[in-house]
Amino acid sequence: MGIAALILWLLTAGGGFFMLATWIAKGGARQPSSSHLPVPVVFGHFLLAAAGLVVWIVYLVADTDALAWIAFALLVPVALLGLVMLLRWLPVYQGRATATDPEPAERHFPVAVVAAHGVFAVATVVLVLLTALGVGES
């Protein structure tokens, strides 16, 4: 189950990295006033997720239960920050921005990538928790 969580985490990270690169390329970090996603939230989400992934890889190598719990603990704020960003992105996706507002960088996120990122993220959190709990061990 730990390897399945790793695979899903990597898929989630791929989608997240794509969205981060798109957001940066479209000016999200350079023009924070035009984005509905706060820079600290975006980069906090990214950095905590990356740190958790590193801890998870070390857990898989070392097989130390405490590392699985640390990785899960890192995923909790990652998930909360991700939910905040999703809730701030939805009005942008639905086109509620006025014509006088500059186009937010996050308007360029493909819906399929956002959806896949969210689904993979939830599955990753569940698998990491189940692994930390020892479910499926023989």
The mean pLDDT is: 93
Q: What's the shape? A: elongated
Structural class, please? mainly alpha
Report the β-strand fraction as a percent range: under 5%
User: What proportion of the residues is helical, as a percent range?
Assistant: over 70%
Number of domains: 1
Annotation field: number of helices:
4
Characterize the biggest β-sheet: none
Protein described:
With 138 residues, the protein is mostly helical. It has one domain. 72% of the residues lie in helices and 0% in strands. The protein contains 4 helices and no strands. Helix 1 packs antiparallel against helix 2, helix 2 runs antiparallel to helix 3 and helix 3 runs antiparallel to helix 4. It is elongated, with a radius of gyration of 16 Å.
Give a quick set of tags describing it.
138 residues, mainly alpha, 4 helices, 72% helix, 0% strand, elongated
Explain the layout of strands and helices.
Layout: H1 2-25, H2 39-62, H3 65-93, H4 111-133
Short précis:
With about 140 residues, this protein is mostly helical. It has helices at about 1-25, 40-60, 65-95, 110-135.
